[in-house]
Amino acid sequence: MKKLLLVAAVAVLGISMNAQEFRFGPKAGYSYSTLKAKGDGQSETSDPLHTFYIGGIAEYKLSDKFALQGELLYSPLGGRVNIEAADPEDPTTFLNFKAKQTFHTLLIPVSAKYFITEGLSVSAGASVGLILSAKEKLSADFGLGPLFELDADQEVDIKDQVNTLNLAPFIGAEYALENGLFFDARYNLGVSNLAKHAEGNEKLTNSFIQVGVGFKFGGN
User: Fold this and answer.
1) pLDDT for the residue numbered 205
2) Does residue 64 sit within a domain?
3) What are the DSSP E strand ranges found in 40-164?
4) What is the pLDDT of residues 176-203, one digit of tens each?
5) Can you give the pTM of this predicted structure?
6) What are the b/e assignments for 24-45, b being 16+ CB within 10 Å?
7) CB 3.0-4.6 Å disulfide test: which of 25, 28, 155, 170 passes with 188?
8) What pLDDT digit, counting tens, does each position of 22-54 carry?
9) Would 13 be classed as within a structural domain?
10) Total of domains in the chain
11) Any domain includes 11
12) Rounded CA gap, 69 and 58, in Å?
């Protein structure tokens, strides 16, 4: 009887292992990042920062329909924040000043995936962002986009003004080809308050969209 149970357990384990699939590989793409400041019942969203992301993924397929995925990515995130003129009623103040804030971030996204078809999946999870450094650079324009940068060779270090953790739940979708190539898109909603010295109900969050491509090695 014990031998029969052992054989049955091995058989079940074998079936389970056959249904599982581990794949890994690189991914890279485009990041569209904004900052949102809230306080005193008001909120303002920055102009976007157009950057990139690069890193790798590991996918563990539990069954034909479900998988777990972990990633390690690097991306410069942030936004272009408006700076109010010292005297907004001065008619000679025609330039629009902005502060380009860049948070160099290490992202660790973890998600659960559901496969609608063999190649198409949707996912939900959370990205743990660790801000490695934070820089600010001033720019000015005439309302038609950045035309030149002030002190272009100098960036101000603002890391002491920014909290390190940027937690962002996300939803996304992926389409994978049989050869391992895949395309994905994801929206990350920043929920952590990045303002280190916030007063009262002040809050600064960083949300971002990622669109990219990658390749998965391994699998059955």
Assistant:
1) 97
2) yes
3) 42-45, 49-61, 66-83, 96-115, 120-141, 146-149, 156-157
4) 999 999 999 999 999 999 999 888 789 9
5) 0.82
6) bbebbbebbbbbebbeeeeeee
7) 170
8) 999 999 999 999 999 998 878 899 999 999 999
9) no
10) 1
11) no
12) 6
Residue 72: CATH number of its domain:
2.40.160.20
CA 138, 143, 147: angle at the middle one, nearest 5? Answer: 50
Give the C-alpha separation, 38 to 97, whole Å: 20
Residue 138: CB atoms within 10 A of its CB come to: 16
**Structure tokens given for 146:** 């950045």
Distance between CA 20 and CA 112 in Å, rounded?
14
Question: Which distant-in-sequence residues (6+ apart) come within 8 Å of 176 by Cβ?
Answer: 119, 120, 121, 182, 183, 216
Per the structure, the complete domain to which residue 158 belongs is given by: 21-218
Phi-psi region of 86 (alpha: psi -120 to 50; beta: other; left: phi over 0): alpha
CA angle 190, 194, 200 (to 5 degrees): 110
Residue with tokens 């400041």: 37
* Whole-number percent of the chain with pLDDT over 90: 67
In angstroms, the CA 209 to CA 173 distance is 12
- 100-128 residues labelled b (16+ CB within 10 A) or e (exposed): bbbbbbebebebebebeeeeebebebbbe
Distances (CA, A) of 4 to 7, 45, 79, 140: 5, 65, 64, 78
